[in-house]
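Hi F.,

I've been meaning to write this up properly since the lab meeting, where we talked about keeping a consistent format for the predictions we share between groups. The idea is simple: the sequence comes first, exactly as it goes in, then the structure tokens exactly as they come out, then a line or two of notes. No screenshots and no reformatting. I'm using this chain as the first example so we have something concrete to point to.
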Amino acid sequence: MEHTKLTAKDFASTLPVKWCPGCGDFAILNQIQKAMAGMGLPHEKYTVISGIGCSSRFPYYVNTYGFHSIHGRACAIASGVKLSNPELAVWVITGDGDGLSIGGNHMMHSIRRNIGLKIVLFNNRIYALTKGQASPTTLMGAKTKSSPMGTIDYPFNPARFAVGLDCTFVARGIDTDMAGTTALLERAAAHKGTAFVEILQKCVPFTDKEFDVLKDPENKDDLLIRVEHGKPLVFGKNRNKGIVFNGLKAEILEFKSGGVPSEVAVYDETNAEMAYLISGFQPPEFPLPIGVFRSAEKPSYEELYYAQVAAIGDTRDNELETLLSGPDAWETK
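Output, unedited:
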């Protein structure tokens, strides 16, 4: 197939972008447009499916086919689109509420089946469109419109959720990390099977300061660890802290700058167990990991489906009318 040369600007629609000034969604829009341009496909090979929420206005703002669907059903609709035309690059845009609450069941089974969707979950830890209720990722103790005394729910960890479902590609990025998060999305775009990318992003009205500490130049090197395949798990302002795995237990090892001790783990993104351990890291005990947690290969659902159809050949014996008139059907009175 001929590589189509397009730029990020080619994926910008002519509609005005209606998000709050300063919203992290703007940065993610720019990052995904860059990732789409890098895929080298013509416009008609892309489709963007969303549910309900601020993030789900996304299809209006990209110059592709798209469908702004109903609450929580983006993965179900996108699965049908991908199966009907597996040549399409199908992107699912969802939020922490849309994707993990009412849409959690559809999300779970899309990942389980390894359908070739690029799922991008915008995580601002709040229901923003409906004006500030606690979402499945809201941290315990947070005071919101629906938890004025502080939420007592244990929050979801979206990346660990995906890793635990044996998702074949899982990554986490931050909205303002333009180069880093764009690179994650570009890898997700090239992945065959389900690609799940969680992006931490600010909501100006309700979680404006939520991730500031992770972006502060004075603190971020001690609170974040960038996970990279084949590289040691090292972090800290002076690059003098590393992650050591003693069996199934992770520990932090401090060392003198200049050389990384052999005990420090070298990250392997193909190792599901390592991905599960690292995805559970949370400050203040451990730095928050960003990067690609898991990347593995196995046949996608659409590949298995069409291989089965090809193997069956003549399907007249399996058509609905034939099955209903066969000996396994009966009438009730």
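Notes:
Residues 24 and 213 are 15 Å apart (CA to CA).
DSSP finds eleven helices and eleven strands in the chain.

If this format works for you, I'll send the rest the same way.

G.
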